[in-house]
Specification:
heterodimer, A: 450 residues, PmbA/TldD fold, 2 domains, 11 helices, 23% helix, B: alpha+beta, 7-stranded mixed beta sheet
């Protein structure tokens, strides 16, 4: 354990030590820093170097919960946060299931989250990498302009302690580069992006990031708006990842407990095509969001949620588990010191199929390869299941890719889309998102355009 | 320090002027031409009710300084939660090093008199209001929504207030301060019927204090959300394809926010990443459209006394009778163009760099009777409530959701429709506005995200018709 982490754990422990009779206390403390470099036209546009810290305290007494936080670890502030959390308890409604997690004996699976090389990586090299990425992007395609090239890294240390005996701490760091591109098409410009993620900058694939960014901006040049019709769609891995992430709300045990899951009463019944198996597995180190503990400090674990199309499990925190008379699946989520835990999937993985994307496409007579979507937040309702997003992509006819199209929507319902999964690709892509990417074929989706 | 003090908000300055002067001098000590200190002290209270229970009251405190140093084309930025002179000087040095210019420079800064430009009057500061009264609002909303109909099976409600004191000083001598108080209530409802579940949502938020609830009825808000969910239980799938769309007053400002608002932000224009680049003085919209961005609009959600660069908020005309008259500007972009700022330099918090952002963005009244607009539409969609949206400013393609919508058949509003997105291209849609009502209203409080930062914004518009928009439904 590093000195910084040890100090945070001591701080969390000391706050928990202040619990009064009948009080459950959880203290979550964190500290972190970031470096951000943005390059434009060969110059550093901005360089950000910043550190932050904070504490969140949750208190439960007689079934009532109170919470407070502050973005500092100064001792007078901590005293105030504790007093405020305590004061806030009295305004909560008594909830017989309220409570902190109890240690459940599930062992953590150790993973590597800290990279010493990244921690000591020199600043001038970070700037050089960003400039190089911009240069490579411009060289990748003469039709492309660069809107910005970015390098970002961050590190964090956290510790959590509770009166119920949870005591966890750790640290991690990460870095990525990204580049945004523009390709002019008359008065309009089309946008693209590329990125690369690594434990340390030496793992970056700048060329791939540059080529992806150039390709994304240019592949829609000359795109037209298609006519409306019912089609089969192939989701690019990057789009599938966003689609799968949405299912986290549907499989959320707290939503289930509160009557908001459209899969209520569907346990052990088919909810998806038999080809679809969905697992949440934050213990897989390949997953970008892999973790060893959940937001309450319980060991993260592998959970099979949908198996061969059959709904097997909802994900739970200790709270939703108590309500549903089951056990936590280690799926408490936490956004940082300023919030208390929620419930959600941590690292979603779909069992791949056997075909490449090209093979999948070759079997489709009339369809669209969906390469990008927009408005997932405004057009998808995870309670009613209504699904409608903006999209762009490439027409598929008689098994081959044709002309680019844009400014259309794709719509169905989540329920139908899961049942209409026709096939899955073998092109697993561990994207820097909550869900893995692969090509996914879904039939009978309404394309709405001109 | 107290998280919930009842101290007057305009008490002591957050940091004394002489300290600020020394910090700014340190920021310029490596030869940079511009240094800025942004101090923020924000207290917030929120409370959430769900499933009939007040789940949690949360108190929050965020306090710190962001220091920006500009040297040539490079901006260096550092932030700290340590507001002591030592902490501020350390951050200023980090920012100066980040901007990385060799050699010594001018390192004396003299600040002018503090500028305050209050656009909002706060009658009841929320930090003086008992938490029990805040929680009570949630219970009232819950009861009112559930009482509407037994089909209402779930209600969640959230209350939030924030008191944000900011102080901005820069090496040009600017010293400005503002106290921003915002109060918000939102209600989400689930109704269930034969066809599954449907949702309803409404919210209320202003840049005022707890008097918000003297001037607005919590029960009414909850009932509106409940009725929306119930109406949608009998909704049929939304159509697909392009057709005329009538957007109810005060529900669709987000249309302009996405269709052209973002595209008129000078940082995007400056990088040729906006479809509106090079269009100044040209007809970019229907001659019916006059688009304003106004940070001074008293009590509206996007109202600010000063922007987050210390510049007083102002009213800016962006499109006049369809002609593009101006973009929105922050300090850096305005300086580059040798023109004045427009009060649109905003940031989420002291941990963020400012950039060009909207405040309250709205379209002025036209002359049509809103009922006539519907009557004049043979077949189309009437949108009573819009959801969020998203735009690609470079292509102009944008989407936005409709959360409450109806069919228009033979000039009458008929059956409710299920939710979907709409898609359009900004410049095309603006030119396609063919009818504009005389019933202007502001819409719901919004949170606008750009480059990872969220800021509160307002929007508004009279009832209007777009000749052709693509509805992203499933019905043929």
């Amino acid at each position: 354990m590093s000195d910084g982490v040890q100090e945070l754990q001591k701080l969390a422990d000391s706050i928990v030590g202040k619990a009064k009779a009948g009080e459950q206390i959880e203290a979550y403390v964190s500290r972190g820093g970031e470096t951000s470099v943005r390059v434009y036209e060969g110059e550093v546009e901005h360089f950000v170097s910043a550190q932050s810290e904070g504490i969140g305290i949750r208190i439960i007494k007689d079934g009532r919960t109170g919470f407070a936080y502050a973005g500092t670890l100064e001792s007078d502030a901590i005293t105030e946060v504790l007093a405020e959390a305590r004061d806030n308890v009295q305004f909560g409604t008594v909830d017989e299931w309220a409570g902190l997690a109890d240690p459940d004996g599930v062992a953590q699976i150790p993973q590597k989250f800290w990279d010493e090389e990244l921690a000591n990586y020199p600043t001038d090299k970070k700037i050089a990498i960003t400039k190089e990425l911009e240069k490579l992007t411009l060289a990748a395609d003469a039709r492309v302009r660069a809107e910005e090239a970015n390098y970002e890294d961050g590190w964090g240390e956290t510790a959590v302690a509770t009166t119920t005996g949870i005591r966890e701490s750790g640290r991690g760091n990460s870095c990525y580069v990204s580049v945004s591109t523009l390709a002019d098409d008359g008065d309009e410009s089309l946008t693209g992006f590329g990125f690369s993620v690594g434990d340390s900058p030496k793992e970056f694939d700048l060329k791939k990031a540059a080529h992806d960014a150039a390709d994304r901006a240019t592949r829609l040049l000359g795109a037209t708006k298609p006519a409306s019709k019912l089609v089969t769609i192939v989701l690019d891995p990057y789009v599938t990842s966003q689609f799968v992430s949405i299912l986290s709300s549907v499989l959320n045990g707290e939503s289930l407990a509160k009557g908001r899951s459209l899969f209520a009463d569907r346990l052990d019944q088919p909810v998806a095509s038999a080809k679809f198996t969905l697992v949440d597995d934050p213990t897989n180190p390949l997953a970008y969001t892999a973790t060893d503990i959940d937001g309450e400090g319980l060991a993260a674990r592998r959970n099979v949620l949908i198996e061969n199309g059959v709904l097997k499990k909802f994900v739970h925190s200790s709270y939703s588990a108590r309500r549903m008379n089951t056990k936590s699946t280690g799926n408490a989520t936490r956004g940082g010191f300023a919030g208390s835990p929620g419930v959600g999937c941590l690292a979603m993985q779909v069992q791949p199929g056997t075909k490449s994307q090209a093979e999948l496409i070759s079997g489709i007579d009339d369809g669209v390869l969906i390469q990008d979507v927009s408005g997932m937040h405004s057009g998808v309702n995870t309670i009613s299941g209504d699904f409608s997003t903006g999209a762009s992509g490439i027409v598929i006819s008689n098994g081959t890719l044709g002309a680019p199209i844009r400014e259309f929507t794709i719509a169905s319902t989540l329920q139908k889309m899961l049942l209409n999964i026709v096939d899955l690709g073998n092109d697993i892509d561990w994207l820097p998102m909550r869900a893995v990417g692969l090509s996914l074929v879904i039939s009978d989706v309404m394309l709405s355009g001109a | 320090m107290s998280l919930n003090s009842n101290k007057s908000q305009t008490a002591e300055p957050l940091v004394a002027s002489d300290v600020l002067e020394r910090v700014l001098a340190k920021g310029r000590s490596t030869g940079a031409e511009f240094a800025e200190v942004y101090i923020e002290d924000k207290r917030s209270t929120s409370a959430g009710l769900d499933d009939g229970k007040v789940e949690q009251v949360t108190s929050g405190r965020d306090r710190g300084a962001g220091i920006r140093v500009v040297a040539g084309e490079t901006t260096g930025f550092a932030h700290t939660s340590d507001l002591s002179e030592r902490g501020l000087l350390a951050a200023a040095e980090a920012a100066a090093v980040a901007a990385k210019q060799g050699g010594g420079g001018v390192n004396k800064v003299q600040l002018g008199a503090e500028l305050r430009h209050a656009v909002n009057t706060i009658k009841i500061s929320p930090d003086g209001v008992e938490k029990s009264r805040k929680v009570d609002l949630l219970k009232r909303a819950d009861a009112a929504a559930r009482a509407v109909n037994s089909a209402i099976v779930q209600v969640s409600a959230g209350y939030g207030d924030s008191l944000r004191r900011i102080l901005v000083a820069n090496s040009n001598g600017v010293l400005s301060a503002d106290d921003q108080v915002r109060t918000l209530l939102r209600v989400s409802v689930v109704a269930t019927g034969d066809g599954g579940m449907q949702t309803g949502y409404d919210s209320l938020g202003h840049t005022i204090g707890f008097e918000l609830f003297d001037e607005n009825d919590v029960e009414e808000l909850a009932i509106r959300a409940a009725k929306q969910a119930i109406t949608k239980l009998s909704a049929r799938p939304a159509p697909s394809g392009a057709m005329p769309v009538v957007i109810k007053r005060g529900s669709g400002g987000v249309l302009f926010h996405e269709a052209c608002g973002h595209g008129l932000e000078a940082d995007l224009v400056g990088k040729n990443a906006s479809v509106y680049r090079g269009k100044m003085g040209e007809l970019v919209a229907s001659p019916l459209v006059t688009l304003i961005d106004d940070g001074t609009m008293t009590s509206e959600w996007g109202a600010i006394g000063i922007d987050d660069e210390g510049h007083p908020s102002q009213r800016n005309t962006l499109i006049q009778d369809g002609v593009l008259t101006d973009y929105m500007w922050d300090y850096l972009r305005a300086k580059k163009e040798g023109r004045a700022q427009s009060g649109n330099g905003r940031r989420q918090s002291y941990q963020h760099l400012p950039m060009v952002r909207m405040t309250n963005t709205f379209v002025l009244n036209g002359t049509q009777d809103p009922d006539d607009i519907v009557r004049d539409t043979k077949h189309g969609v009437y949108i009573a409530k819009l959801g969020g949206g998203q735009v690609d400013t470079a292509s102009g393609d944008f989407v936005f959701g409709m959360t409450e919508a109806y069919l228009i058949e033979n000039g009458e509003i008929t059956e409710p429709l299920r939710e979907s997105n709409l898609i359009g291209n900004g410049p095309e849609v603006l030119k396609d506005i063919d009818l504009l009502g005389n019933d202007f209203a502001m819409g719901n409080p919004g949170m606008c995200g750009k480059d990872g930062q969220g800021v509160p914004v307002g929007d508004g518009q009279p009832t209007l018709r777009v000749r052709s928009l693509t509805i992203g439904g499933t019905a043929a």
